[in-house]
Amino acid sequence: MESRLSCWVLGGVLVAAGCGAQQPAADVPPRTAALPTAGIAAQKVAVFPLTLLAVEERLEWEDHVKSHEEALDRADSMIGAFLSQRAPEVEWVSPADLARAAKQAPQMLTDPHRMGTAMLRSPDLNQVPDPLRSQMRTLTGIAAERYALVPASLFFVRDSGMVRGRGRAELMLVLVDVRTGRVGWRTVARGEGDDPWAALWAGLKPLVPGIP
C-alpha cells in the first residue's frame, strides 16, 4: 500500500484517517493524503532535502533535467515554496537551514544531504532505524522541534496511454516523530504535466486541499 495513514497521536491530535478503512483496489493508485497540519500547527518542523530523484528515459525530459544536483535543488525549492504558501500555520525549517545548522557542528551533526533518508520510501518501514534515527533526532532537535517532513523519493514516469511529452511525478513523503523514530504519516503525491516541474506542482496541490 503506497499511501497510508497510521493511527498516531501527533501533537495531541489523533491522525487516524484510513485506519481500518477498506483498502483501494490494487490497480487504482491511492489518493494523496492531506498533510496533517492540525497536529503540527505553530511548531517548527524540519523539512529534509530530497536525495533520490529519477526520470524514466522514455519521457525524454533531458532538456528539463540536465543536472541531477540542480534537479534536486529545484525540487527542494518547489516543495519549500509550496509548504510556506499553502501551509503557513506550520513553521517549516528548510533543507538549507538544516544544512547550515549541521555545518556549525560537523563533528556532532550529519549533513542532511548525506543521510540515508531515501530508505523511508519503503511503504513497510514504520520505524526509522539507526543510525538514521539518531542522525535525524539530533539535527532536528538543534534546528527545529519534534517532527520532520521527509521527501523520501521523487520519480518522473510515463504511462503507455499518455500523450508524448507528458509525464507524472510521484513524490513519496513521510512525517517522522524523531523522538520515537515512528513514521506516523506517509503518502505519494502524484501529478501530471508537460514537464517535470509542472507535474511536481500538480502533485503537491492535493496535500493541502481546498486551495485553488
Keywords:
single chain; 212 residues; alpha/beta; two-stranded antiparallel sheet; 9 strands; 24% helix; globular; disordered N terminus
Write the layout of secondary structure elements.
Elements: E1 4-5, E2 8-10, E3 13-15, E4 44-47, E5 53-55, H1 68-86, E6 91-93, H2 95-104, H3 132-143, E7 147-157, E8 167-177, E9 182-193, H4 196-204
Parallel strand pairs: 4-6, 4-7, 5-7
Antiparallel strand pairs: 1-9, 2-3, 7-8, 8-9
DSSP summary, beta strand count: 9
Q: Supply Rg.
A: 17 Å
**How would you describe the shape?**
globular
* Main beta sheet strand tally, sense and closure: 7 strands, mixed
Measured by DSSP, the beta-strand proportion falls in: 15-25%
Output the helix-strand order: EEEEEHEHHEEEH
Q: pLDDT below 50 for ≥5 consecutive residues: which ranges?
A: 1-9, 11-22
Distance between the termini: 28 Å
Helical content band = 10-25%
Q: Structural class of the secondary structure composition? A: alpha/beta
The number of distinct helices, counting runs of at least 4 residues, comes to 4
Mean of residue pLDDT values: 87
